[in-house]
Amino acid sequence: MCFFDTLCRHLVQKLNLNYLNLTSCSLKTSMTKWKPDYDGAASEMAKAAVAFKNAKQFEQAKDAYLMEAEYHTENKALFHAAKAYEQAGMMLKDMKKMPEAIQLIEKASIMYVENGTSGTAGIALDRAGKLIEPIDLEKAVDLYQKAASVFENEDRLREAAELLGKASRLLVRLRRLDEAAVSLQKEKNMYKEIENYPTCFKKTIAQVLVHLHRGDFVAADKCVRESYSLPGFSGSEDCVSMETLLAAFDEQDEDGVSRVCNSPLLKYMDNDYAKLAISLKVPGGGGGKKKKPPVAPQGDSAGPPPAEEDDDYEGGLC
Questions:
Q1: pLDDT at res. 28
Q2: Is 22 helix (H, G, I), strand (E, B) or coil?
Q3: For residue 160, which of 169, 150, 173 has the smallest C-alpha distance?
């Protein structure tokens, strides 16, 4: 195995020398060749990069891709330059250098946009978001939002809404609830525009949960009322559940809130929203107590007055 590895490295080094020699020839000028052949040089560096990648020599592969990108840039071939930068980023990913990898992929996305291939830019940013999400949620949110903006500018609202959905969930996980509320509203508007009404219903539920956790009952109620205009919402399971939840929340009925939040409709939402549901508490609810029912008034002719109840606050609040 060691001999095989040594042989592979030797062959790759020999190949690289050949590619560098060919690249040098491509870039030379003479009396009959006035301009460097950047296209030829880029082609040779691409071959060298693939050879290094196959040999798992990622540092050298990354350098080769970067040189390829430079030659394509000199040749005004922005799409191919962007591809090379993206490949260099993937080599850095394999080297566990994730922040540097993301920088190159972002650079590639900018070049895709400049080249007029915005869809490819959006896909690259989405891919970068997935790569960085396990280690940096803040950066992942930024990348998903940028990707959504790219698709929105292309009037590809379905892809834009899906990417905003990823950002919204991460904002909830980060407890940036004010931003999550804005993101969810934008998502919902996009789904409404493409007439995906069932998804609008689910976004309404998410909005209500976020607003209640923000302590803004009025905003939560407004989201439900605005959704009455969506075809099929009024009377739907989603609508009835939210009306029941808001009524219980307003009456400080913790048992009622718990029943709705632990129902299958909410428990089987995306995990971040399901966690919001099961952790929702009524402000001032007293740690799980039900709201006491009102005592019926008693007339003068009724029996003896009820026994005086202990005053929970006798002697002050302290």
A1: 52
A2: helix
A3: 150
At position 205, the amino acid (one-letter code) is: I
pLDDT of residue 41: 87
* Residues near 39 by beta carbon (within 8 Å), at least 6 away in sequence: 71, 75, 77
Tokens, residue 15: 């190949």
Residue 290: predicted pLDDT: 47
Encoding tokens for residue 144?
């998903």
The C-alpha torsion from 262 through 266 and 270 to 272, rounded to 10°, is -60
Instruction: For the full predicted model, state whether its pTM sits above 0.85.
Output: no
Q: Tell me the C-alpha to C-alpha distance, in Å, between residue 188 and each of 181, 200, 254.
A: 11, 5, 29
- Which stretches of the chain are DSSP H helices? 2-27, 38-54, 58-74, 78-94, 98-115, 118-132, 137-153, 157-173, 177-193, 197-214, 217-227, 237-250, 254-261, 264-267, 271-278
CA distance 113 to 150: 8
Tens digit of each residue's pLDDT (9 = 90 or more) over 207-239: 999 999 999 999 999 999 999 999 999 999 999
**Burial annotation 12-43 (CB, 10 A radius, 16+ → b, else e):** beebbeebeebbeebbeeeeeeeeebbebbbb
- Contacts of 313 by beta carbon, 8 Å cutoff, 6+ apart: none
Give the pLDDT band (50/70/90) at residue 149: very high
Residue 3, class by beta-carbon neighbours within 10 Å (0-12 exposed, 13-18 middle, 19+ buried)? exposed
Contact 173, 272 (CB under 8 A): yes
In terms of Cα–Cα distance, which of 244, 197, 249, 205 is closest to 223? 205
**Tokens 């946009």 found at:** 113
